[in-house]
Amino acid sequence: MSFLSISNAIKTFGTNTVVKGFDLSVEKGEFVSFLGPSGCGKTTVLRMIAGFDRPTSGNITIDGRDVTDLAPNKRRIGMVFQAYALFPNMNVFGNIAFGLKIAGLGKAETEARVKEMLALIGLSHLEERYPYELSGGQQQRVALARALAPKPQVLLLDEPLSALDAKIRVSLREEIRAIQRQLGITTVFVTHDQEEAMSISDRIVVMNGGRADQIGTPSAIYNRPSTRFVAGFVGTLNVLKARVDRRNAQTVTIGGKTVQLAQPVESADAQGNLSLALRPEALSLLPSDLRDVTFDGIVKSVSFMGSVIRIRMDVGDEAISFDMFNSPNLVAPLIGQKASAHFASSDIFELSA
Amino acid sequence: MTLDASAPSADLGAPIPRTSGLRMIGWNWLGVTPFFLFAFLFLIGPVLYLVAGAFQNAEGAFTFDNIIALGSPNIVASFSLSIRLSLLSALMGAVAGLLLGHAVILGGLPVWVRNAFTTFSGVASNFAGVPLAFAFIATLGRLGLVTVLLRDLFGFNLYATGFNLFSFVGLSIVYLYFQLPLMFLIIAPALDGLKTEWREAAEILGASRRQYWQMVGLPVLTPTILGCFLLLFANAFGTLATVYALMGSGFDVVPIVLFQQIRGNVLYNPNLGYALALGMVAIMGVSNTLYLILRNRAERWQK
Amino acid sequence: MKKRFPFAAVLMALFGASFFIVPLIATFYFSLKMTRGELGFAAYASVFNSADFLNTILYSTIASLIAILIGAIIIVPTAYWVRLKVPKLRPVVEFISLLPLIVPPVVLVFGYIRLFGSNSWLPLTASTFGTDVLLVVGYVVLSMPYMFRAVDNGMAAIDISTLTEAAESLGASRLRTITTVIFPNVRAAIISGAFLTFSISVGEFVLASLLNRPAFGPYLVQLGQDRAYEPAALAIMSFGFIWGCMVLMQMFATRKPGQRWLLRLTTRPAQRARP
Lengths: 353, 303, 275
Hints:
By secondary structure, chain B is mainly alpha-helical.
């Protein structure tokens, strides 16, 4: 039984259709991320859930109740904005207490609840501070506490970490997820950062051009992307031009080399050309029994990225990139050196659409 | 850091010499000397001279007599008149400017309306003084267009109600013509600065429109509104040409009184003049300082 | 939120607009009524034919232009120096530049008359020329806040210190830097400040009246006492003049260095694609 459901939502601004038919069912307590590039419509859908934008057509239901026509201030939703949006004329206490005050909660209860929230976000000592005296990360935590204080039924977060430094982003997203788990609140999280989405979500909705390209767990999205866009957007991808053998749909030629695939291809065009995808981690400089395909080529660039070393290789007229784990005893290949990349034929997959 | 021996080296020549400490300071201060000289000679000097003179009598001895003379009924009446007029004008300007600003910027009107008002305000806020007085005489004077139209079209005799352009109320209406644009121009950025996210955040937390304005919108705007009120007050207090052109020399606001003193049209007491000047500068100084403080407070919140 | 037709906003905007426009219409209408029974431009003709009008406006224009020149000469190097060499003095300079806003003109001229009067250490008011000097100086002081802000903003927009460093690293002397790099880039800001100064000074009344100089402001007041229709005509002309100044001021304030004045009618050879 879904707690939050959006059915066939369409949103048009003037002549521009930003959301072209969006369906989603979110379970109670689930953490769902909307992932996609700017302009894909993810924020618009979020705003429709919140009630700031009215769907041109379609319905939104929360806990069995149709809220499509309900004003935002009656939906009992909590929202965290990208720019924090803390009220500048109130201190931390005042901000967190705002929703409670509107709801008419008594003084004692308000105070107890605010203190509870402050403890949850670990900022009890900053109760008296004003927003301009807080760092970005602190402001965002206060914004989260403010949203959660009135015990909303759904929590919405609109790219809450985009304005923060990289290190804070990582620690704060863990914190958000931990709090969400503790409270068991149904949550929708909008982001353009795929690493962010994958690390903390129960499910991800990958959006592209106003539609949901794929909805699934992070692992499903990464390992079995259903469209080329999803495959390219989530993680790095090597896209190789291949040609299928007319007689055997399981045999393809890539860069002059013949490869036997685990399954027959389906998406070749009339001339037999198609695109195949290969994740960098499937490739290795070291041969093994499982890796039954070998590409020989010339190393084009070697980038030291900390824990991994990213190698780009020219194989015929294709370029592939893959990562090697860095280790102190490792000798990285030199540019211009001949090298061989090994991978398992079962790791190649087709890209549809 | 060592250079790679194999890289080609260029002869960059001798480094640019740094001037030694003392000479550098001298050169730097020279650059701003004309400004300070000018300011002291023609701005700070004269004002200080007046301030000093306020505490001296005709022989040059120190005295509080002039300050005490400020307490004489005529002078008190003048200051009272000036302050009352300035307060009324500032209040009218602040309220009208806020309402107009809200309507034009936040009211959902097309952008060209805002631009038109902004451009016009830039002109109107400078259209003070003599021409403005003429314009209002042609509008609301006894034979002014509006007066005549009200009488001929609506049978409404404006002057029969006791209204007179050449009065306290009439003058404050004339002042509004340059006060309202000034308020509009200053409040516009502040209204822009009311982030839409605040309104949305308030809304999602359950607030109605009224509650948002009451608990967030107006409180955030208050420093700017108050500051602007003070600016309008100071602006009205110092106005002379408009009053003079409209009322002649008979309307005893403080600037006019000082004007008459200088002209020598009344018993010429320069030391009293100094005291008047001191009073004016003090009032203007205090209100402008408060304005700056409030403006800084508002800017700090908008971050 | 449902969108309602903004009745209140429209009403308020209309009210504001009419408050602004009605006096202008009334004045213009009044100015056309000089010839009994018909509407005509007799009032305007009368103004332009008046020797007093021409003399006073000439006097005020010249005084304003000199004030602009002096203001620029004092303020531009100062703004430059403060930005570049003595940023610590910046608050002081800014404060002083804003002082004229709290000193009403009547107080300022009073100070001049006492400090530079016939019995003082520098009796400027004793001679006509000296009094003219005081008047011009007064205009410079009154326009200082606006002039300084305009020039300062112009310099802020082009990052003076980096430009200076670039010029000096390429070998330019300080003087050359100022004339060939800094000045052309702040020229527009200076002109913008100049127009504002111009609009303030031309119709200025208090200084001119108390220093007894034949400027435009006192002429206007005198005319207001003597005549009925010409003042209305002058009010309209004043408004138009201020409008023109503001438009030009805005135009120069937003102009980027190097922008064309008018559209080019032909392309220069260098702009055509090279083979």
